[in-house]
Amino acid sequence: MTTTDWLEELRGERPDLGRASTAGRVADVLRTRITEGHLRPGTRLSEEDIGAALGVSRNTLREAFRLLGHERLLVHEFNRGVFVRRLTVDDVRDLYQVRRILECGAVRRLAERLASAAAPSPTADLLAPVGAAVEEGESAAAQGAWVAVGTANMNFHQAVADLAQSPRVTEAMDHLLAELRLVFHVMDAPQAFHATYLPENRAILELLEAGDLAAAESAIATYLDAAEAQLVEAYAAAAARG
Amino acid sequence: MTTTDWLEELRGERPDLGRASTAGRVADVLRTRITEGHLRPGTRLSEEDIGAALGVSRNTLREAFRLLGHERLLVHEFNRGVFVRRLTVDDVRDLYQVRRILECGAVRRLAERLASAAAPSPTADLLAPVGAAVEEGESAAAQGAWVAVGTANMNFHQAVADLAQSPRVTEAMDHLLAELRLVFHVMDAPQAFHATYLPENRAILELLEAGDLAAAESAIATYLDAAEAQLVEAYAAAAARG
DNA sequence: GCGTGAAGGATTGTTCAACAATCCGTCAAT
DNA sequence: ATTGACGGATTGTTGAACAATCCTTCACGC
Lengths: 242, 242
Fold this sequence. Notes:
mainly alpha, Arc Repressor Mutant, subunit A, WH_DNA-bd_sf (chains A, B), GntR family transcriptional regulator (chains A, B), 2 domains
């Protein structure tokens, strides 16, 4: 192992060091509680109450709110406070519109990169995260761990977007999926929703492994269309009830 | 005009009402100075100095910094302060990677929407902003207003991305172009750079108007490849000098 | 000369307290 | 039922204070 390897490894741990910010840690705590559904959409987050509960000052808490606001998990209404975001049906449609562009675009860019390199199919290490997510989902389903099935499904699509090998696409997809979690917790049975699409994930993986990226892209598109339709219907019904 | 029309119009003015925040206005001021090149990349923004100059407290200024940090115009280094972002060559490549996905994706989504509606070509009002940006650029070039040529070019690509009719894509493209402005100000002659591509913009517009969206998408892709190559070369040279 | 380490100043991180501005619910009046 | 005024509660913003950290300088020893 050379010196530059050492340094390169250390670079990877730099983000952990920067985590010392109090506001960042507060944001982490709130983010988890939101994405895991303990804080329902529409809930108002009182500066005083939460500040007292977490033992941080209002100013620091405000910085945490800003962080989550830009991730679209919170909305900030002037002179009224911050609320856990409540997504409209139009928001859900838009999220899937962006997913179509991002996920299909990632596969398409990968295809063009392979074409210019005269490679027949993606290398195994590129697809490793995708395959891992597929198996993670299947084994979770076998054990009946439905929550884990949901996160595995998210990991799968995150891995697909990561095929673009673009830090900005990765981050955008990360935020996008966090937003989508807001929707899932309003539904009745998000478990069944995710389990439905496990076979499709494997089919997409196999198309990617076979190097038929055009078919994979098209499979993702139809997957997203179906998921959007099902989700919009279920969400509209849930929203109508309250 | 019915009552609901009135109300719908008013909804569009809601964002203007929320603009009363001091931190938001401070962020606006700083954003302009950064994107217009008055604050060079790498510059450190002292909390005390800027707070005194703008007449706001450190806490408020911090909120403004946080806002711009999430737009990637500023970088925040713990215990060291905030700096105007200095983009690496890899950042430039990534920005163009995302542009390819977003702009081409927007056209592609538009094509699929037209196909499902059995429409031969996009409606005129959809392409109006694109056409306006093209003419804006050409008339600015005729008058030698090179700065205006640059903004017109940005408007063109923003308009292309807006074809996706997705609020999130619009916002992402907005932030992306703001980031790119950081690069242009480091170059020697950004004017000539933008002027080169005026004819291409018109060609893309005509392909869109003709309804040949596949050709338009491919034209955008080659445009972006060329622009990226030229920009990366110029930027690397400028970065090497200092 | 050169790398090491300590002292000092400057800047940021965080908290606290205070006041102004704004919103929300209540209640009375028309 | 709508309007208008009042009062409590919450947020917006400020200023000051202290701890933690970084950067510079300078002296020291090899």
